[in-house]
Amino acid sequence: MKIAVVGCAGRMGRMLVSEVMSREGCVLSGATGRPGSDFIGMDAGVVAGKGESGVIITDDPAPVIAEAQAVIDFTSPDATEEHLRLAAQAGCAFVGGTTGLNETQKNAINLAARHVPVVFAANMSVGVTLLGELTRKVAKVLGDDYDIEIVEMHHRHKVDAPSGTALLLGHAAADGRGVDHDEKKQAVRDGHTGPRPRGEIGYATLRGGDVVGEHTVIFAAEGERIELTHKASARQVFAAGAVRAALWTKGQPAAVYDMTDVLGLKD
Question: How far is 235 from 225, CA to CA, in rounded Å?
């Protein structure tokens, strides 16, 4: 399978290139970088530390996506929106992990999915996908006698909060309880907040150092507390999941999917 990586010179982009080059059943067919980047014109494999790939990094995503059977995107919201449009035009499957999208950019996912399979997930890790399913099931069983708090920590450079993964877990908890997530979400507490409202889904955001990603879902009640935790120690787990998703799209009809589809966890 011919897989392209857009934004290949960043930390995640390099991991993705390395994973594509290492995985059986696929080949790196193209790679892009930001306009003006020092990496434009360089070999993507060399930049990723995997040796020569024969794929030269370009700043024009259109021909790169047109040549690929699947494109993997962990870039920025604005770039992702454009890449979705190009993938739909080219008939190229799309795998995306960009977080912090606004409503217009989220709608671009649905528009592209009219034409091609789109796998989009805030976290491509197999472990986080399983954590989401566990969160949904535990929330369903326990009900709102248990307060839900989601604690996440990432490196100091992360720009969005709460993290996309934390929100994914919050939505899973809300789904389990059969409630509207946005009505129950509480992401900011400051000053005299009063007693905790029943059924609230709270978030706590920590930032510092080089933490790849840590998420804990806490179910707290009188007399006991249940905690579900996932800790990522290397970004490679996200890259591995993304390439697995790209390979999975082969033969799939046009639609929006997530990692539970890829892993066969849908009820």
Answer: 30
Q: Does residue 111 lie in a domain region?
A: yes
Query: Looking at the domain assignment, is residue 107 inside a domain?
Result: yes
Edge-to-edge strand ranges of the sheet holding 2-6: 27-31, 2-6, 70-73, 93-96, 117-120, 255-257
pTM for the whole structure: 0.80
| 221 has pLDDT over 80 | yes
Whether residue 131 sits in one domain with residue 207: yes
pLDDT at 266 over 80: no
158 is catalytic: yes
Q: Is residue 267 part of a domain?
A: no
Q: Find the catalytic residue in 50, 154, 185, 215.
A: 154
Confidence of residue 122 (pLDDT cuts 50, 70, 90): confident
The number of folded domains in the chain is 2
Catalytic residue among 2, 115, 140, 158: 158
Its domain, for residue 241, covers 2-120+235-262
Q: Residue 266 has which token pair?
A: 């849908």
Residue 140: active-site member: no
Task: Say whether pLDDT at 261 is over 90.
Answer: yes
In terms of Cβ atoms closer than 10 Å to its own Cβ (0-12, 13-18, 19+), residue 204 is middle
Mean pLDDT over 202-210 rounds to 97
In sign, the C-alpha dihedral spanning 83, 88, 94, 96 is: positive
d(CA 242, CA 245): 5
